Structure formats: structure tokens, C-alpha cells
Amino acid sequence: MTHSILLLLLAVLVLLAFWLGERRSLSLVGGGRGIRNLHSLPYYYGMLTALWCGLPALLVMGLWLLFQNTVITGLISAHFPGDWQALDAGQRGLLINEIRNVVSGQITLEGVRPQVLAAAAEYRQMQSIANLALSGLVLVIAIAGLGFAHRQISPTLRARNAVERIFEWLLLGCSTIAVFVTIGIVLSVVYESLRFFHVVSVHEFLLGLSWSPQTALRADQAGSSGAFGAVPLFLGTAMISGIAMLIAVPVGLFSAIYLAEYADRRFRSVVKPVLEVLAGIPTVVYGFFAALTVGPALRNLGEVVGLSVASESALAAGLVMGVMIIPFISSLSDDMISAVPQSLRDGAYALGATRSETIRQVVLRAALPGIVGGVLLAISRAIGETMIVVMAAGLAANLTANPLEAVTTVTVQIVTLLTGDQEFDSPKTLAAFALGLVLFLVTLALNVVALKVVRKYREQYE
Amino acid sequence: MSKSVAETRALVEKSLRRRQWAERRFRAYGLGAVLLGLLFVVVLFTSVFSQGWSAFRQTNLTLEVFYDPAVIDPEGTADADTLAVADYPALVRAALKQRFPDVEGRTATRQLSDLVSSSAANVLQARLTADHSLMGKHETLRFLADDKVDQLLKGRISRDLDEADRALSDQQVQWIDALKHDGVLSLDFNRGFFSNGDSREPEQAGVWGAFVGSLYTLGVTLLLSFPIAVATAIYLEEFARRTRWTDLIEVNINNLAAVPSIVFGLLGLAMFLNIFGMPRSAPLVGGLVLALLTLPTIIIASRAAIKAVPPSIREAALGMGASKLQMVMHHVLPLAMPGMLTGTIIGMARALGETAPLLMIGMVAFIVDVPHSLTAPATVLPVQVFLWSDSPERAFIERTSAAIIVLLVFLVVMNATAVVLRNRFERRW
Amino acid sequence: MNAATDSPAAKAAHPVPEASATPETKTVGRITVDDPLICARNVDVFYGEKRAIKDVSIDIARNQVLAMIGPSGCGKSTFLRCFNRMNDTIEQARVAGSIKLEGQDIYDRRQDVVQLRARIGMVFQKPNPFPKSIYENVAYGPRIHGLAADRIELDEIVQTSLKRAGLWDEVKDRLGAPGTSLSGGQQQRLCIARTIAVNPEVILMDEPCSALDPIATARIEDLIDELRASYAIAIVTHSMQQAARVSQRTAYFHLGDLIEVGETDRIFTNPRHKLTEDYITGRFG
Ligand SMILES: Nc1ncnc2c1ncn2[C@@H]1O[C@H](COP(=O)(O)OP(=O)(O)OP(=O)(O)O)[C@@H](O)[C@H]1O
Ligand SMILES: [Mg+2]
User: Fold this and answer.
1) Which has the closest alpha carbon to B406: B45, B58, B51, B52?
2) Class in CATH terms, B208-425
3) Which of B108, B160, B328, C93 lies at 20 to 30 Å from B350 by C-alpha?
């Protein structure tokens, strides 16, 4: 917890800096009455001093902490005994993980190899040296910043402008984080995927019909890697999403129509929030519901009718996912339908069209692009949905078109490949990132198209 | 070419019946869809509540135990080490045997002692460690009954099943009935559920650890995402000139809002864990990932809130000689704050229910301890739901549902706060 | 001090070929004054491609009210907003030419807009009090500009400003009430009080009475007349009566051009330019 103490110290310094800066500016002009001779309010001189004191120090601290572990890891792996140096990257990753676990005290020390303990001790020692160095550095920077700003203060110093400039840069910095997140996603997913595609060809991955990554466990023995043909996953994802859309689109659309065009205000004001509750329920709850209630119910139903339904059937997962997406479709369609100008409806009514004819032939036709956009967004949601399928769909990659059988999806495989003990760098782990890349690209494409369509539509009626 | 008026009217009338029928059918479809939606809500909630409700009560068994020095401390040393490793389960066994003196044999004894939770021995140890004077005395205590006893009494394990298919043997059922008849079995409020961490034993498992984990994680999320999102919104709405760069930021935010959450988990795994070497399973990393995930939501809401502040207020401030930053800080931000907070709470509610990305960064580990720091291994409520739902024990089903109820209550409180905030402070201009 | 208004020469019936100091301009009448506080020269304003103000030059005198009139959309507001650089807030707006306040170019790169706006206050068409208390509305300016050393001085500033704006008696018992709870006329006087609390040298007013009823309008007009003793005032108005009542000089704008400037009495009784005449005699839409 030395870092929190350091932060506390820094905070105290910053407050001190504020006070000193404010005081100095006032004393330069001879106290409160002379305030008019200052370019800015004393507050800003304090602020400027505080910023100079705190910002660089915080920045250095953040960067340092970000890379500290990586650097230390690099240093101790340089000291590894000879037989460890010979390890391949995957085993080395496991080893480093073990050392880190020992350091953080997350595992019991019983049965840990002495070399690991030694490495952990070295790690700890470096950590404490690093922490000491960091504390010293940060405090020196903070005090230097304080001193520098304090010396600068003069009645003509444009403190307010300087402070505002700094804040504006900070705001700009924050707004770029969104971009960095995207870059981070792309980099991490693409980098690991590229390594995967060194082992398994893109062609095999995208077009192969058999998926059994578990055999990759034997990879280091015989050089045989498992089967990484992702087509069964794509088809499974498509099937479950398709079932979901078959439920969600009609139910969502028709309830939107009913609520927007037929229902009276009271009915609408009660029913709409209740339906929106469905959107606020965590997906893990849907997953539990699908696995525990819907799955067995479907199987029993199947037994009665004489069909064999797998207990983890695509149908169960798809059904529940459809329920989850209903409010999404209905609220988007509601917006789109409400955006259709009344004059269009009036035109149809004046010709003697019935309500449903007006809705079908005028309102829906006008709102169609918007609704299509909404449906595309919903599809991207369904594809990316994870918990429902993890809990209710199967693990085995069956290549089947029968919704009563168990299928698996892209997200299920990502989760199963990456939870539990991981071997770094095995094709099995990397495959998850390749799947993630596909998922990211497909949903991104859907979103871009959908947003374009929706925006075009909105502009049309604004 | 053109028809007479009478002809037209006849044609219209002829089609009228069909059209009115179609009208009614269409309307029925709409109503049907709405009712179907409502039905789903009802079924979902009844299913969760009917299964989870019973977990808030737990069966306890009252026994008189004898702190037998011959068992605990045969040599009479009375030092802490001896007390720490003593055979406390034997005391519990003895207490049970006292009730059923005619039980003989290893199997039968094991079956009998299976009726009490393994936590009973821990209770005895804790009491004796705290108060050495108990040695050699009798004490009547209430212990957790085993989860199977609990399930039988709640009717979740059927007595009609064949013995082979039932988790409890006929003999055990008889004992339970006898205990019940003696009035030593009682159903009480399940305090442990709200104060314990996770456990392999259903009767000892609680949501407190996950709850605290959720609080830590959401704390990190809030601390990171709120300031960053507000700063971004302010920059984009008040400072940025429309350039390629700001367009790029905008497109980015809109697309990030729709990236599947599991992809954020991949980012967390590859960047935070593998590259920056942050600890696995930690609320710090979980909070970080969820912060990135909720960022777009809060930014979009905050921008809307800022947009809703009328420009005349800005002109007034600028006209007075306020600088742009002063205008924002003194006038725009306070007026937009309720809207921003509402958006933030909604974003937080989403983060609270988020599971998938946390699986990627190892927050699925089985963790008994209640987390005590941001870097300690922890889990969160929805992940706890996921973990329990995977457990084979019958008793975990009701606990999963109960954990869901806790989660939903938490969510309802958050959303209600958002609604109240919106209604109380929203200004209409 | 009392600066001279139009010189006697300007009152003469013939168009005056001014001394060499007078810049060349298409504008009819004398655009200069003897002791100018602000000199605008060859000002152009563009909204993107659109040229909303075309090569306008005019002086603003101390202790005098300058009225700007003209048909809707002719650029009065645009021009007025040039003086305290409110046009900076409109992204596509661009100002060319020079505007000098006591010889200092206000569009100079080194000019701090914040300081400028403290010297040149502005009252807007729609009353726009901050959604804060009456007291806070008036105290805001002195606070951000550090005009009061302590609370007592601040109270004093608030009180005098409200008094000068003729609002004190109506609000002295409820200074804590929100500014938005006042009537429209009171709100506008509050905005004026807020502006004069900063003790500016110039007050710009953009149709300050257009949202008010005749009685409230009359009060504001009286107020403007009083304020003239201490400030230079430029007011945009659609009411010719108002211009005649409150101003000493009047400028007539048409489609971004400054057509004619002169003493108010003269403009309304004896306009020289055809467009001016059409407008004030109501022949122009
Ligand atoms: N923000 C803007 N962007 C683009 N053009 C603008 C903008 N503001 C004003 N204009 C244009 O500049 C011209 C002058 O507008 P301005 O508001 O100055 O007129 P005005 O004389 O004040 O009119 P009114 O009497 O109606 O207030 C008009 O043609 C107007 O359309
Ligand atoms: Mg105007």
C-alpha cells in the first residue's frame, strides 16, 4: 500500500502548492486590496502552482506503474537458470505467472519449487527497490514543479489563461481515450490473431468444417495442432441469432406498432416500462433462466411430442436471447414509427385507408430503413451476446441445421478457451483471439451500416 | 372508362368486410405481441422468485455439545496449537450420537454426522479459542444443518424418490423426521447468506464476498469512467471545433457503444494482464475493463445533457466576461449534472450486470474470502450467479436464484435513483 | 467628460467632405466623432461564404447612445457582437477589418477576450438570467473578475448595481430568490444590473425591449437614458420610436451595408439616403 501513501503525500503537496501560489500572488500586490493589480484572481495562481506540482508527478507515476511489472519480469527472466532459458514461450509464460502468483501471495507456498521461490524473492526485492525509486522520483518532480511555478508568479503572469490552457489540454486528452480504446482493442486482437494465423492458415480457420481445439493440448508433443475450422461456430452463432431474431423481430415490432398506434396513453405508460424491464435484466439471469427452466421444459415437451431435444438445444438459447432482444427492437421501432410525420398518416386516412392499411402501407414503409437499421443493431447484439449461450448452449461444435440439437457459438468458444488455466501462446489460446477478431469485425460492420441507415433515415424527417 | 358513383360505392362496400377483418386481425397481432412480452416478464420473474425465495431461510439444528477435554486436549497442555488442531468434528458427532444412541458403525455414524454442516466444527473451535473457560462444559448451540437436510425440509428433495436417486438415504430421512419431531430443527432467517463469502458447501455460501467485490469493481469503474466521460463530453460539446479528429472521436464513441462486451474482456486480458502484468481476478482490472465498456454510454448521455442547456445561458456568461472554462464550470456543468448523473447510473447498472468480460480476466476463480483491497482476488455478483448456476448441488439452485434476487434489487435501487434524479432535477427550458 | 456629438458641420444640409482623418466610405453622414471610445474601420463579417457585414466603419462616442436600426437580417446583431467579440463563439463566423477600443485593436492576438468583455458588457434580446439567485446573478461578474475584496464590498456592488438598474426596491427582500422567478421586464433589468456590476465602459444592447410590454420598455428606456451619463451605449432596436427616444446618434443598416449615420434628430427628420427614408417612413418591409 505504499502507493496510496505516496498519493496521499502528493495530495498534501498539491494542496500546499495551491496555498503557496495563492499567497505569493497576493503578497506581491500587497494583500486583498491590491487584487486589481493582478492579471488573474489569486485562486488561479494557486491553481497553476498546484497543477505544476501535481500533474507531471502523476503522469510519471502512472507511466512507471504501467510498465513496472513488465520491466521487472524482463529483468528476472534474464537471470533465469540455464534450464529455464531453454523453455519455449508458452511454458515461460506459465512460469512467470506462477512467480507472480507467489509474489502476490495468491497461492499457498506448499509444493512450490525452490527456484520459483528464489525468483519470487528476487522479484519482490526488485519491486521494493522500484517502489522506493518511484517515491523519490515522484516527490522530486512534484517539488521541482512547485518551485518552478512559484518562482514564475508575478502580477503580470497570465495565470488564468495558463490554467485554462492546461485544462483544455486535459479535456482533449480525455476525449482521445475513446480512440485509444479502439486502437487497444484492434491491436490486442489483431496481434494475437496474427500469431494464430502463423500456426493455422486463415483459409483453414474460415472454411474448415471441424473444430476441436482441445486436441491442441498435445501440440508440443507431436506438432499436431487441433482442428481449427470455425465454420461450425459461425453456423451455430448464425442459427441461435436467427432463432432469436425470429422471436424478437415480430414480437418487438408488433408491440411497438400496438403501443405507438393503437394503445391509449394509460396502457402505454404502464406497459412500456414493464417491457423495458426486460432490457435491464443482466444477461447472466437470462442464461440461468434458459439453462434451468427453458432447456428442460423444451426437452420434456419434446419427449411428449416424441422429438429428441438436446438439453442444451440451440432452440432454448435462441428463444431466451430473442426475449432479451425484444425491448431493443421495440423501443427502436417505436422511435422510428413516432418519427414518421403525422401528415403522411393523414394523407392515407383521408383516402379512406383503415388504420392497419395506413400503418402497413404508409407508416411502416416510411419507417422501414430505420427499422432495418435497428434490426441490424439487434443482430450485432445477438452475435456478441455471451452469457446466455455460455450457460444454455453446448460446447461441442456440431455441424447441424437442426435447432433441437446442441450447437456452439463463437462467444462460447472464446470463453471456454480463455477461462481456466491458460497456456500462453498455444494455438488454443490464440484461437480465441482470432474468433474475437472475427466477432469484432462482423459487429463493427453491422454497426457502421446500421448507424448509417438510421442516420440517413433521421435526417429525412428532421 | 370511369365508373359511375354507384358502381364505385358497391365495389368499396364489397371489400369492406374483408378490410375490416384484416384490421381486427392486425390489431390482435399487436396486442398479442404486447401480451407475449408481458408474459415473458412475468414468467421470468416468477421463475426466479419462486426458486430463490426459500434461500433467504435456512434450516438450523440445535444441539447440546460437550467441550470434552478428553477429545480436545487429552494431554491437558491448553496451548493454542493444540486447540487449533483438535478434533472438533468429534464433538459434533458426539452431540448427535447423544440424540441417537443406537447408531452404530462407521457408515451410519458418517451418515448421521452428514446432517450437520461442516461449519459446526469451526463454530466450536472459534468459541473455545475465544473463551477457554468453556472447556469441560456443556453448551446448547444452533448449527447450520447440511444443505440436503435443508432441501428436504423445504420440499425440494422429494421423499417419494427411490432411495438410490435421492441425495439422502431412508435412514437419514428418518433421523431428520425424528429431529423435526423433537423440535430441534428450525427454519430461520439465513444470515450467513448475506455475510459469508463463497463456499463449496451450499449452506455456508453467501453473497457478501461477491457483493463487496461488486462494490470495489464498480467503485473503480465509476472513478475512472465518470470524470473521463464528462471531460470528453465537455470537450466535444464546448471546446472542439469540428475537425477530422473530432469526427473520428465521435465515430469511435458510437461504434464502441456497440462492441460486444466480451471483446472488451479480450482487451483486458491482452493489455492489462499480459502486457502490463496487472493481477488476475482483481477488482482493479475488472473496474478498468468495465470503465472502458461504460465510457461510451456515459459520454453519449453527458453530451445530450450538455446539449440541453440553452445557448442563452452560455451567451450570458460569455457576455459578462467569463472565460470559456468559467462558463462551463459555473453554468453549463451544474445545469447538465443531473442528466449526466442519470446517464452514469444507467451505465453503472449495466456494468453491475456485466459478466462476460470479467470471465476473461479471471474473475471466475473460486474465492472464499471477502476481498479487502483493489488488487485482492475477488468475484462479483453476476459472476457468482454464473459460478453457482454451474454447481451440481440442488441447494445451489435456490441460492443462484437468491443471488439473482439480490442483484435485481441492487439494480432496481440504482435505476430508481436514476428515475428520481431525472424527475427531481430535470429542467425543461 | 462630455464628448462632443456630431459637429455643427455634420448638421449642415450638404454631404460633408470631411477632413483627411475621415476614412473613405460609401456611408452617408459622418461616421466619426470627436472623442471616440471605439473606432470600427472597414469591418467585414463572414458566416462561412456569406458576407453578413460589408466594409462598415463607424465610431462610438463616450456618454452617448448609438442606435442601430434596419430591416431584419441586415446584420445589426452581427455587427454589435463584433464589439465584444461574441462572434468568436460562432464557429464559422470570421471578422475582418479593425475595431479599436481607445486605440487598442480588440482583435489583436494578444487581446484577452475575457478582459475585453469585462470592459464591454452586453445585454441580450431575451432576458437570460442565470438559473441562480438574484444576488448571485449580479455578484457573478465581480466575483470572476475579482472586483470585490470581501463580502461587504460585494454586497455593496450588488446593491448599487441593482439600484442603478432600478430593480432594488422590487427585489431587496428576496435577493435569494432565483433570477428566473422575476417577470420578463424585471429579468431584463436584472441582466442590465448584472452587466453594470462589472463597471464596463461600453454596454451593447441587442433589442433589449423586444420581449417586454410597453411599461417595462419605458422603464428600461429611462434606465438607458440614465446610464448614458456613465457609459457609452450601442443599442439595436426595431422600434424607430425607441431609437428616437433614447439615442443621440443613429446608424441605418441595409443588407450588411451601413447606409447612413447621423444625429438621431436629423436622421428621423431629414434622412439623406433613399433607403433610409424608405425605412423610416415605413415604405420598407
Ligand atoms: N450563426 C450564423 N450563421 C450563419 N449565418 C448567420 C448566422 N447568424 C446570422 N447569420 C446571417 O447573417 C445575417 C445578419 O444576421 P443578424 O442576426 O446580424 O441580423 P439582424 O439585423 O440582427 O436581424 P434581426 O433584426 O432579425 O435580429 C442574416 O442574413 C443571417 O441569416
Ligand atoms: Mg438581431
Assistant:
1) B52
2) mainly alpha
3) B328
